[in-house]
Amino acid sequence: MGAMATGNISKTNDSHSYLFNNALKFGIHKKTFTLNSTNSWVYGSTDKVLANNDFNSTLDFDLYKTLPHFYYWGLANYQSSLSLKINNQYQAGVGAAYNIIDRKYLKFNLSDGILYDNSDIYLEDTIRDVYSTFRNSFRILFHLSIKDIVKFDAAGFYQNSFSSGGDYIVKANLGLAVKLRKWLSLTTALTYNRFNRTMRENTLFTYGITMEKYF
């Protein structure tokens, strides 16, 4: 289980802004499967204009019962994002992944699968669209650990609709953690999202501390 809370407040004679980023993670790791739950909330304002009110909740599992370095995955995700003009988005799907490099301290992984997507979005400020589509979900994942003290993670996602070439989602995550104690780490992360249907994107850079507890 892990928890992270970061914030930034800036006030001058001419402007006032703040941003809060909170995340809570829970995971179960066994030899034949893993189960992870991740919840995050970003809330921010600039000069009394709300810029971020973005919530994301993900439940995913991996099943290791076939070939070496190969596994199946499943995913259920809910997202609501003011910055991306997403009122509600539900995704669920399954797929397969393969570890091209599969060492204790170094991993490189490719994954592909199919997601069902039900979205409620704003194409313009007053044009609302509720629709469903099937997406191909492709992911690249990289992990590097140096003596379990320094950890670097990178992930890129491309989710394109089968029914429309202009309907795609791009996500990228970069993370660096330096362990201070067994349960405490200094962390920094860069997250990029683009939802092409609404022609919106956001970038979030955070830094702070992460507390973890293993059971």
Q: What's the SSE blueprint?
A:
Elements: E1 2-11, E2 16-29, E3 33-46, E4 49-63, E5 70-81, E6 86-102, E7 106-122, E8 128-146, E9 150-161, E10 168-179, E11 184-195, E12 200-212
Antiparallel strand pairs: 1-2, 1-12, 2-3, 3-4, 4-5, 5-6, 6-7, 7-8, 8-9, 9-10, 10-11, 11-12
Q: How would you characterize the overall build of this protein?
A:
The protein is an all-beta fold and 215 residues long. It has one domain (2-212): monomeric porin ompg (Porin, Beta Barrel). It has strands at 2-11, 16-29, 33-46, 49-63, 70-81, 86-102, 106-122, 128-146, 150-161, 168-179, 184-195, 200-212. It has a twelve-stranded antiparallel barrel. Strand 8 (128-146) and strand 9 (150-161) form a beta hairpin. The chain is flat, with a radius of gyration of 18 Å.
